[in-house]
């Protein structure tokens, strides 16, 4: 029996939303598994702190300030990463915006655009730009961060749920079209995780937290580190025959 290979040694990973939460945990997890890492978000000082931690693990790190909803900044991000490392083997589309509260009847165009542009548009065009690089270098793997909200919506976060459902379908389409280039595309759908984004809904509606926890079989909210194992699995050769899938990591939320 062949032992699964979870090593990322010799790989270069690009992680958006890399300054905190799931993105930061993934960046450090990938570095521990042997990867050099490009971390991107809008705030460079926060990224520089993450980059210092990655270097402390003995790996190379490049922090790049970028707004993923802006196509010109996507181009600069990919070019900068390639200039530094010569390739990109792994892309984690983690950048996303908050599930702002609004019933659909009161939805404003500005809210729609802010969520869709970052959660979907930016993800699609960054994936496209990186896939072109991967194609030239013989392949790679892309991991999109969706959400359990893409399978089952919560009250008053309809646009967020729409965007994450679209990410799940986008994952399938990219996987089907790019398999011939040896590019695998999968997604992770976290449940509620203790991040600024994940906790924002509980801050907006405090009484919702207790109600929500009653629907989580494990009985608690997850931590960013609990997503890292799934990330490494999908990024590594351990998942070499997996593409087009969405791996749910939600403490059993969708079972109830």
What does this structure look like?
With 256 residues, this protein is an alpha/beta fold. It has a single domain (12-249), classed as 3-Layer(aba) Sandwich (Rossmann fold). 45% of the residues lie in helices and 15% in strands. It has helices at 21-32, 44-56, 71-85, 109-136, 158-178, 196-204, 207-213, 225-235, and strands at residues 12-16, 36-41, 61-65, 90-93, 140-145, 183-190, 246-249. Strands 3-2-1-4-5-6-7 form a seven-stranded parallel β-sheet, sandwiched between helices. Helix 1 packs across helix 8, helix 3 runs parallel beside helix 4 and helix 4 (109-136) packs parallel to helix 5. The radius of gyration is 17 Å and the shape is globular. 46% of the residues are buried. The model has no long low-confidence stretch (mean pLDDT 95).
